[in-house]
Specification:
mainly alpha
Amino acid sequence: MIKDLTKGQPLKLITLFALPILLGNMFQQLFHVSDIFIVGRMLGVKSLAAVGSSAPLIFMFLMISFGFTAGLTIITAQRFGAHDFKGVKSSVFHSTLAAIILSSLISLFLVTFLKPMLHLMNIPLEIMDQAYTFAFILGVSLVPVVLYNLLSGFIRALGDSKTPLYFLIFCSLINIVLNFVFIYYLKLGVAGSALGSCCSMLLTVFACIWIIKKKFPLLQITKADCHYNHKFMMEHLRVATPMAVQFSILALSMMIIQSVCNSFGTEVIAGFTAAMRIEQISTQPVFAIGVAFATYAAQNYGAALIKRIRQGVIQSLITCLILSIIITLSVRFYGTQMVGAFIEDSKRQEQITSIGQQYLLISSYFYFFLACIFITRNALQGMGRAGIPLASGIFELVIRACAAVFLAGAIGYKGIFFAGPIAWVGGALVTAGGYWWIINHLKPHEMRKIFTRKKLLK
């Protein structure tokens, strides 16, 4: 259902919009966790380590495309908020064109230079072949993943967060079934896990296209809408490119940490991989609010309603503080059992579980700083201010990389566990300070003039 987020109580709108995103993200995490769980239980620790060690590389390229498509659909949401429905259709055309070109280039680059990149990540030779197979198959299938993110982003731009939820549920369930079939029955190993992900995502893209044709006429484009406008494309790229770079910086920092982690052996890799999946699930509530806020901010920015953006940020931060405390307590009390669920090897289970639990005990204290980044970063991006989030991402990269390398050398693998939390504190200071400065210098009447003067679609 299309929803105008420029009217109504901010926190209620954001929460209701975030709930389907949260459920969808949980299913998306189920999508990823099912890979790790099935691989770890059916194929063993080495296969789990192979998937975990190569995952940050694929994650980096996925984050580039995710940031890029998120930036493209922000323009769509702004046009919808300004009730420029012709602009919405043109945004769909320009965004789709840009996304297909980018994803094709990334996929080609990834499969061409995959092996050298894996060697740079210090992946142990005993798991290199499996890591290469897993990453290669996912690299080839990058285009449908990007198209899925783009189509879902278009629908969320119109204020509908429920329909993308249905897509994710469908995709996650298909992925679990296919993974089980490919690994257990067809004996394809880690290749079966990657193939299951590819096939389920491709089926979901077809489902997205079908639903858009049935229920979202505003997103359906005709030949008349397929008129390329260089200025309008540049408006998209000015937001999407910095967001892609910012997301790539985040992923690059994770790849650096994984590279350092890989030097400590299979047990540390397996424990860290399991703990990271648990953390990704645990932080989904605050992440969902952040994603919802991007659309909320974009629509209200398009309508020049600055006061509503300010109210939404304050109310969302208070909500995230409460959620962070609850999440931290849950992780601390049940983290050991969750990490242990990923490991079948009884001989090494205790050691691997201990490693994963140590990470969760350290990082869980800093979840509110991560939530602060999600809220203020998405607020800035929704307003088309991608420069400050980009600067924050660079700052996080430097802090995370330096902390991981230095602390790992000083205190061993436990040093890696402090790198993320330290980076969250630094990133939160940058995005929160940048948001405060921007929001206090926006003037509603000037924004209305800006949107009135933009005649890029003529």
